[in-house]
Amino acid sequence: MAGAMGDIAWVGAILRFEAALATTQAHLGIVPPEAGAAISDACRPSLFDIDGIARAAVASASPVVPLVAALRELVGPGFAPFVHFGATSQDAIDTSMMLVAREGLDLLLGDATSLGRECLLLAGRYRATPMAARTLMKVALPTTFGCKAAMWLQGVMEARGRLSAFRRDRLAVQLGGPVGTLGPQDVVAGLARELSLAAPDLPWHSARGRVVELAGALVQVAGAAAKISGDAILLAQDEVGEIVFEEAGVSSAMPHKRNPARAIEARAAFAAACAQAGVLNASMAGEHERAAGAWQAEWPAVSELFGVAGGAVARTLEAVVDMRPQTDRMRSNLERFVPQPHDEHLRAAATMAGRAIDLFAKELGDE
Amino acid sequence: MAGAMGDIAWVGAILRFEAALATTQAHLGIVPPEAGAAISDACRPSLFDIDGIARAAVASASPVVPLVAALRELVGPGFAPFVHFGATSQDAIDTSMMLVAREGLDLLLGDATSLGRECLLLAGRYRATPMAARTLMKVALPTTFGCKAAMWLQGVMEARGRLSAFRRDRLAVQLGGPVGTLGPQDVVAGLARELSLAAPDLPWHSARGRVVELAGALVQVAGAAAKISGDAILLAQDEVGEIVFEEAGVSSAMPHKRNPARAIEARAAFAAACAQAGVLNASMAGEHERAAGAWQAEWPAVSELFGVAGGAVARTLEAVVDMRPQTDRMRSNLERFVPQPHDEHLRAAATMAGRAIDLFAKELGDE
Amino acid sequence: MAGAMGDIAWVGAILRFEAALATTQAHLGIVPPEAGAAISDACRPSLFDIDGIARAAVASASPVVPLVAALRELVGPGFAPFVHFGATSQDAIDTSMMLVAREGLDLLLGDATSLGRECLLLAGRYRATPMAARTLMKVALPTTFGCKAAMWLQGVMEARGRLSAFRRDRLAVQLGGPVGTLGPQDVVAGLARELSLAAPDLPWHSARGRVVELAGALVQVAGAAAKISGDAILLAQDEVGEIVFEEAGVSSAMPHKRNPARAIEARAAFAAACAQAGVLNASMAGEHERAAGAWQAEWPAVSELFGVAGGAVARTLEAVVDMRPQTDRMRSNLERFVPQPHDEHLRAAATMAGRAIDLFAKELGDE
Amino acid sequence: MAGAMGDIAWVGAILRFEAALATTQAHLGIVPPEAGAAISDACRPSLFDIDGIARAAVASASPVVPLVAALRELVGPGFAPFVHFGATSQDAIDTSMMLVAREGLDLLLGDATSLGRECLLLAGRYRATPMAARTLMKVALPTTFGCKAAMWLQGVMEARGRLSAFRRDRLAVQLGGPVGTLGPQDVVAGLARELSLAAPDLPWHSARGRVVELAGALVQVAGAAAKISGDAILLAQDEVGEIVFEEAGVSSAMPHKRNPARAIEARAAFAAACAQAGVLNASMAGEHERAAGAWQAEWPAVSELFGVAGGAVARTLEAVVDMRPQTDRMRSNLERFVPQPHDEHLRAAATMAGRAIDLFAKELGDE
């Protein structure tokens, strides 16, 4: 994920935008075919001084300004006027945000699917395994470990559904030109085709709900993961002992100690994810046709958010894979704290686990 | 909105839950018919000491405990065992949160629809009215005021769409019993019917994505409103003068001054909305079958969030209704700062305004 | 705390500002003595329709406008011109915020001192009581319960120190006049004397660091409390059993269950406190001489923040008072998970507890 | 600042901790002198595979574990047992956080001092230069540009004061050993001396107020800067024209346009700073003797927060240096919107500017 969100990835995405724009405009006869070919050919990240562009970006509050300048120099004065033709920095950045987001979503959906499958496996394997349910951090009544895993599964699947829906419906090009009015519809359509993004109904320069929706889906999947990791940490407490981590982290001071390192990192990542989602929510209220601060806060926040949401899911996936449920301990804890028989609760819990499996198995198997 | 979210509304919702539960269980023969009738009859807020219940709630971290106790006392020892039968506090609170949210959503959707219509009117009336677009807070190139209003409209409609979708798909009863395992499906179905809520696929005691989705939709509509209010404040600056507020707020020190009071309040409300959404996002990672803190943070945050999101939309609606666009000033500012002709930008802007109207008019007219 | 932060408290504070201003100006011969007396006499909350003022406040984004209008009406046309003389809404609100904050701080400092004393008692009584320390949620090495309480104490005392310092140094009147330039220094000094607030070096209309400092101190004390409550919840887990709450909360579904209700509420309150502190931090970057949204977001956020920070401390204090340390269980858990002797750790822990007592006992005894 | 907060800086700081610990322990005869020398000599970042350590850190949720392992290997089996002797990961990380923070504070204080001086210059040079004050984004009454700059100055100086106080009083070593009980006081004192940090009264493993205080000071300085940048952006609006940026940013689409790029970046950085401060506030409520997630969220948040707070101040400093006040425009705007004479306001404003200069000049000159 770090690679998918780094400076190189962003510069690569901006160059893909510029290449696709020039190619489309060449097809449509808006720019000369040779210009389209030359520009498209020059849009390779390896031809650019990416660190220099990052430094120069400070002076214009946008990496697009120095990148377009470098691209114009590269293609020479004959084709330079056709570079970035009719576009504005925001077109390039917003479209690139969608390209970068697609990479991020694919990685994240892959891990979320794997995490879902692991939860599904747990729900099936431990469907009827009795354990104590704990409410308000006190032992309450019996449940089954499969039922607990089914709840985790539900959280992951709801979040995964939002990510999928965003991936499918909301990844759209931006092409509104200098002030976000309607770009030429044929260019918008061609650009969308070139980049395999949707052509939006309208430009979205100053309607940032799309980004808020993305932020919401990302924080939700991070939260679904952190929920699992948090439960796992609680179950792995020595006094509880219902989970053991096979490859737990070691301690620098206490060689015998085994720490739930991955799950801990997932929780730390979720805290960071909440923060970045907050930046993106607040950015909705930007000024006029392009905000003076709120928009510029979006790109790093989106990159960071993918990083930490991805981290929360990846670390939780590792933790779940590494988890060794201790079913004897589950049973003995239950008997110790809830001595009376509660068969109807166990039946309900097992039924719920089964129902969750029925609901989600097909969806997880399809991909 | 304050009424829809106050203590009385919450107690009323919890009582509706308890009444519907008893009624359903009576229909199904789970509790005696007379118990169902007696309980249902007693579930009237006026019969309860709401302040006393609020005070007593502190001792159990839940208003349900004292409310159920009072209800049991009210129906007498004969029917008391059938009150809250098979349910847990969280069933009552979560279902009530959905009932309260439905009221809140209806109010909010009403205002959001009105706000959308006002933006639609502006987009139509000023479709071709030239004004300066401003990017990064500098005059850029021409747009039309209708195009600006179309962007506002887009923001409102996207948010309104999310609210509607939540209203339609995600308002579900909660009935998982003490530890959130599957409640009896016939009771769940009956309860859902009684309360006109959906019967969820699974209980959602510890899968809190539903609340995060609600928070996301609420902050988004508040942001769409604050975006409009922010732009209006900027346009109403004396030096810009492109908007005048007819009934602007007065000053305590400067009688001649006219302040954009409503729009200001909308922005303040949005800041508060972002904060509450943050509380709800963070609450996803609660412990085990019922969180010890994160869940209890949800109810007040949901109430507050509806209050401030509702405030942001209502104040923005008032501001937009009160807005007097100064088209001469728009034109003169434009000529002053962008002297050269830019007919193609004006055409694109007017086309975009028209396109937005085509996209959204039917949706707004239908309700 | 709810009373200290409610509408009545705010209106009362604004009236105290107006009375003190008129009195001071009468002393200095700026307004006629009879005007000073009449205004001061009229500044009684019971003479005002507080709900009506709250409603009217919406139209001007400030309660001061309708309140000053009502006060002018009350004193009659002869004295009306001398009401709110030379002041602006922000002078009244900011000064009132300091008056309200003083009440809030006194309540909070009282509870924080009590909480500190309880921790001090625990640190002393259990100075040498062995228990397991837990790092990364795994049993690590021995500590003593007194050492743990000493850490709690440290957190409370650091936060209490910040609150005290703010109470002592930063509660200042605001009197900058309509646009926050320097108010007359003799009036500022007199007003400060009347209200027992400091006379600031400069008006602080658009330098909002003072509010950010208050927010920081409030969130810190809430965090110190939530840390204790969180630890207490973990120690009260059935599987750990090192703390029992005497008067724990009951459950609506499981009569046998005892929930750590107060500690849970403290954690929920801390989550809300973090959110409100975020609103206040973000408000620093307001526009020009008085912000259009950021400033108006401050007052409710300050009130809310006092409410939830006060709640976090009060609930934690109740939880700590209600706490019954189970020293046998502490010892048996320790022996079970850390069988080898570790006298040097126990000695270090006991020494630390003693050192904390030495550091803080005098400070807590003095008040 | 990026360098001061990067992986290399952190690894360097951890190695300085390990070297100082070994050196101190050698002086005190706790470890053999040759061990102290060998360890100290090996603690050079260039001897370590920093990327490899960052990767390995994931498995233990701490970079200290692999770094100490590598250091032990480097010094060989004879001295390995004396590496990290008596310390825990948290001792190394928390102390390193303070070392890294000191670097960050020095950079930030340098820029904050420069920013203060620039504001002081403006306050002096334009002490009596009339301009319109704007409240609630409407022209209100006259002020002077020097008075406005004096308010900026006040904001910067208050924040700078907090940073200085933290730098002076709160940068302390951490040495509590495995579970945060009291480390040996002679070692604590020696370590503090070696690293020029304070020896704290008590270890602060689970009392995280210190970090919250740092976060509060950092967000405050970022807010003070963003306030200035925000005002500057508003004054630079074409319709206002009271500030021109000499080296403004260029646009990729509109070659004539000059954007307030630095000020924009400062505002974006402030939004990010608020988010990171939120992470650190929330981290106070960690579990037991070392939190499982909250503590691990601190280090990256501190690094990020220094980065964005530093960015907010540095970009604002550049913006202020680049600012060309347009005094004719200030006067003409004032005459246009506030035609009546207001000499007393101008006098008050100029007096305030002078007073601010008197208050802060010495402090700024001293360094």
Structural class of chain A: mainly alpha
Number of helices of chain A: 13
Specify which chain pair forms the largest interface. Answer: A-B, 78 and 78 residues
Distance between the termini of chain A: 20 Å
- Reading the helices and strands of chain A in chain order gives HHHHHHEEHHHEHHEHH
Oligomer: homotetramer
Strand content of chain A: 5-15%
Describe this structure in words.
- The structure is a homotetramer of 367-residue chains.
- Chain A has 367 residues and is mainly alpha-helical.
- Chain A is built from 13 helices and 4 strands.
- The first copy, chain A, has a two-stranded antiparallel ribbon with strand order 1-2. Chain A has a two-stranded antiparallel sheet with strand order 3-4.
- In chain A, a hairpin with a 2-residue loop joins β1 (130-135) and β2 (138-144).
- In chain A, α2 crosses α8 (185-195) and α6 (89-125) packs parallel to α11.
- The first copy, chain A, is elongated and about 85 Å long.
- The model of chain A has no long low-confidence stretch (mean pLDDT 95).
- Chains in contact: A-B, A-C, A-D, B-C, B-D, C-D.
- The B-D interface holds B 134-141, 233-234, 236-240, 251, 254, 257-261, 264, 278, 282, 333, 337 and D 134-141, 233-234, 236-240, 251, 254, 257-261, 264, 278, 282, 333, 337.
